[in-house]
Design goal:
The complex is a heterodimer. By secondary structure, chain A is α/β, with parallel strands linked by helices. Chain A has helices spanning 2-35, 77-86, 100-110, 125-132, 147-152, 155-161, 185-191, 199-211, 229-243, 264-278, 294-299, 312-315, 318-323, 363-375, 379-387, 406-412, 433-445, 460-482, 487-518; strands spanning 56-64, 88-96, 116-119, 169-173, 179-184, 223-226, 250-253, 256-259, 303-309, 329-332, 335-337, 340-344, 349-354, 394-397, 400-403, 449-450. In chain B, 72% of the residues lie in helices and 0% in strands. Chain B starts with a helix and ends in a 7-residue tail after the last helix. Classes of the chains: A alpha/beta, B mainly alpha. At the A-B interface, helix 1, helix 3, helix 4 and helix 18 of A face helix 2, helix 10, helix 12, helix 15 and helix 16 of B.
Chain lengths: 519, 300
């Protein structure tokens, strides 16, 4: 009796001991793993370039913006059609748009590069350094060999992507006049209000949307303007600041490059947003919101206005229509101010396709890949990107294509558009009214778009510390709107920005600007 | 000399050790050589061999940076909060569970409380946002219905550390009890019997039998914890970080991410990582020494 009990106890003890040791070693293993995350190993391996056999084959990395990337196998008829029409076998890596720049930096550091890579942060030091150390093909001299590409080529945009006067990629053109305000047209109609034309209108509409029960449900459950922490800098602020007559991020004042936040108009716009925040016309948690989440407020029927690209009206509010079938989205680009109607211009492109020398081995390979980009400009291929495959995504009506399955189109075709370079300038009578109006507005507002004058220039300081410096100003702007700092506090942040590299950036841009003027 | 003769005698055993050693050399020690880029201006396309050497330039920049002391303070405070408020909880919980006599109930509670460990930080951050947002979050709606002002928890510098520590407690306390429960299961039942014979109360049993039995485990885990003292957990903090709370929320881990990955300054961010590792090493060695001085077994 006694001995068996003893043995039992001993065995139990041993098991527990082993368990303890196991668990502890497990813990240390985890700890060790998390430690070596910071060091990047510098081994460079390269994938073999496709030897030019009959069908050209190449790998590409591009961003995507839907919830899921489109399928790139036989289950996706649109992808198959793209391969057939261009005569190319594509091996595409889709990377979520929100993490795309980080992924590009990591991919560059790893040395294991796809043969065509979309680079959106093309002014970042990692990319500039890679270009200067000869990592990418210079494609400028080849453009003239491809008729479609040559027709597509725009010297202004080409200057904007050039590094040391040379072209290292094929830009993906986007409309210049694209930024604006999107709002609930049905709410405006309910309240008998006009579409916004001035900055004051924005305030008044936001106020009415908050206090006058625009959705007529008898409850005080709506607010005027949905705002996010990153959309503030990329859209809302520059929309307001340019309308008030100042720069789009950078301009020239007294012969010197000057950022918009050193102009009084910026403070004016900040004060307006602060007033709106204090009156609860803006979501009180905007500082904690990022990315596409801001549109949820519209899609849930809570907010009446948001800033963004006007073409969002066509694609980003499908869940609103499901929730409220009567809802309508209106939009304006450009607001009237002291200098007339103004809006911030986009750079004219969204990223560029670049071709690493480590994976594209020979000139012949490069030309093969470039021929794909020549072919995607064919009207036939453009139509594929716009309407998918006939009989699957669309049908032909009186000779014009009409999309029949919007959901399938969104899943299979929409993000394939990342593999094209031009936004379609083909217009079809069968296109929906929203897109017709969007395209018309692109054209109408283009002359009113204020460009960022530093767009074509390189500043080493911006390349290296740009993100940090932007954060200083964006944080200060958000804190000012929320009331945790005052005007003096914002001035202090500006001072901080100048000390940490802003002054150097101003000098570098001024020099580049003068150089360009004297040419 | 002894080693060589030992090796000859136990050839097979040493042969069996070889794959393990190889693993550590290949996957742990060789990659560590990568730290040399902290002393270079590393260019990915030039590689380690052709990047210029710059000595301590990056360390100099880091220590001179006005942000250094902010980062140091934020990291340290979060680590201290974690040690004070989180570390003791699994021990207390394990002791409480150990006193539960109904076996089924004990197992049940144990399972329930360590489930949050398997929920990813992204989901935890999402839950936190949904609960605490000023736009219809349940906590703020409750505050409002009580007539109180809404509190902007997510953007407040005052609430940040409390939030981070509470999240860690919610997610990891249950998981942390496992080791202590294992250690408790190993306590000789005869000791309790003897204590009861001597008339010890439950409290006295806890203090004089249970506690000494798991003291070694506690010290061991404390030393290991100090090794990762400055690892505040990148994911969790990064997900909770925003313009409102950056002054108290930016820590070494998030700083390495922004400078290293977003600005692609690989050398500089490696230098920051090396500094962190050196501090951790010092902490482990001194904690281990201290433990030994007080008569406990250290890690080594």
């Amino acid at each position: 009796m006694e001995t068996r009990k003893k043995r039992n106890v001993r065995r139990k003890g041993m098991a527990a001991g082993v368990a303890t040791v196991l668990a502890v070693s497990l813990l240390t293993a985890c700890g060790a793993n998390s430690n070596d995350g910071g060091e990047a190993s510098g081994s460079s391996s390269s994938s073999s370039g496709g030897k030019a056999a009959q069908p050209v084959k190449f790998s590409a990395m591009v961003p995507f913006f839907a919830a899921q990337p489109p399928a790139t196998d036989d289950s996706n008829p649109a992808f198959k059609a793209l391969e057939d029409k261009t005569g190319v076998k594509l091996d595409v890596t889709f990377v979520p748009g929100s993490a795309y720049d980080d992924k590009v930096n990591v991919t560059l550091a790893s040395g294991n590069l796809p043969q065509a890579i979309v680079v959106t942060n093309n002014k970042n030091s990692s990319v500039i350094n890679a270009i200067r150390s000869g990592a990418f093909w210079e494609v400028g001299p080849y453009i003239k060999d491809f008729p479609n590409l040559q027709k597509y080529w725009n010297d202004q945009i080409a200057t904007n992507i050039s590094v040391d006067g040379k072209i290292y990629g094929i830009y993906r053109e986007r409309p210049v006049a694209r930024k604006g305000f999107l709002f609930r047209q049905d709410w405006l109609d309910n309240l008998g209000l006009q579409q916004p034309k001035t900055v004051d209108d924005i305030y008044n509409i936001a106020k009415a949307f908050t206090t006058d029960d625009p959705d007529k449900n008898g409850k005080n459950d709506t607010f005027g303007l949905a705002l996010s922490s990153d959309g503030l800098a990329s859209d809302t602020m520059i929309d307001l600041v340019t309308a008030l007559g100042s720069f789009n991020k950078w301009g020239i004042q007294d012969g010197k490059a000057t950022p918009d936040f050193m102009t009084p108009e910026y403070m004016e716009a900040l004060k307006l947003l602060k007033k709106m925040y204090d009156e609860k016309l803006i979501n009180q948690d905007f500082g904690a919101i990022k990315g596409t989440k801001v549109r949820d407020f519209i899609n849930q029927g809570k907010a009446g206005m948001v800033t963004g690209s006007i073409d969002d009206a066509n694609s980003q509010f499908t869940s609103l229509y499901k929730l409220i079938p009567d809802a309508k989205i209106g939009f304006v680009a450009g607001l009237e101010g002291p200098k007339g109607v103004k809006l911030p211009a986009n750079s004219g492109y969204y990223g560029e396709f670049m071709f690493p020398k480590s994976s594209v081995k020979s000139e012949a390979d490069l030309k093969n890949i470039l021929s794909y980009f020549d072919k995607v400009l064919d009207p036939e291929v453009e139509k594929l990107f716009d309407f998918g495959v006939e009989g699957v995504h669309s049908k032909v009506e009186n000779g014009n294509p009409v999309i029949t399955n919007q959901e399938l189109f969104a899943n299979q075709v929409a993000d394939l558009g990342q593999l094209r370079i031009a936004p379609s300038d083909l217009t079809w009578p069968t296109e929906n009214d929203v897109m017709k109006k969007v395209k018309q507005m692109y054209k109408e507002q283009a002359p009113n778009a204020v460009p960022n004058v530093t767009e074509p220039f390189l500043s080493p300081t911006q390349a290296e510390r740009g993100t940090d410096l932007d954060t200083i100003i964006n944080d200060a702007s958000i804190k000012f709107i929320m009331g945790s700092i005052d005007e003096a506090g914002f001035a202090k942040a500006t001072e901080e920005w100048r000390k940490q590299g802003g002054d150097k950036m101003i000098d570098e841009f001024t020099q580049e600007y003068n150089k360009a003027q004297n040419k | 000399m002894r080693l060589v003769s030992d090796m000859k005698r136990e050839k097979l055993l040493y042969l069996m050790l070889l794959p393990g050693l190889l693993f550590f050399v290949l996957f742990k020690y060789l990659p560590m050589l990568g730290v040399v880029i902290a002393f270079q201006d590393y260019q990915p396309f030039a590689g380690i061999l052709h990047s210029p050497w710059v000595g301590l330039k990056h360390f100099h920049r880091f220590f001179m940076d006005p942000d250094f002391w902010m980062l140091f303070k934020n990291t340290l405070l979060l680590a201290v909060y974690n040690l004070l408020f989180f570390f003791p909880l699994p021990i207390i919980l394990a002791l409480m569970l150990n006193e539960v006599r109904k076996h089924f109930f004990k197992r049940f509670v144990q399972t329930i409380i360590y489930i949050p460990h398997f929920i990813s930080w992204v989901v935890v951050a999402g839950l936190t946002y949904t609960m605490l947002t000023t736009e219809g979050g349940i906590v703020n709606e409750a505050l409002a219905s009580l007539g109180a002002d809404k509190v902007n928890f997510l953007l407040s510098t005052d609430w940040f550390r409390t939030l981070i520590t509470s999240q860690a407690i919610w997610k990891e306390t249950g998981w942390g009890t496992i080791i202590f429960l294992a250690a408790l299961a190993g306590v000789d039942q005869q000791l309790y019997e003897a204590a009861r014979m001597d008339g010890a109360s439950r409290w006295q049993q806890l203090w004089s039998v249970t506690f000494p039995a798991i003291r070694t485990t506690i010290v061991l885990l404390l030393i290991l914890r100090l090794g990762s003292f400055l690892d505040t957990g990148f994911e969790q903090i990064f997900l909770m970080l925003n313009s409102g709370n950056r002054d108290v929320g930016e820590v070494f881990d998030t700083y390495v991410y922004t400078t290293g990955l977003q600005n692609a300054q690989f050398s500089y961010s490696t230098a920051v990582g090396v500094f962190k590792s050196v501090v951790s090493l010092i902490l482990v060695i001194s904690a281990n020494g201290l433990a030994k001085r007080f008569g406990e077994e250290g890690v080594y």
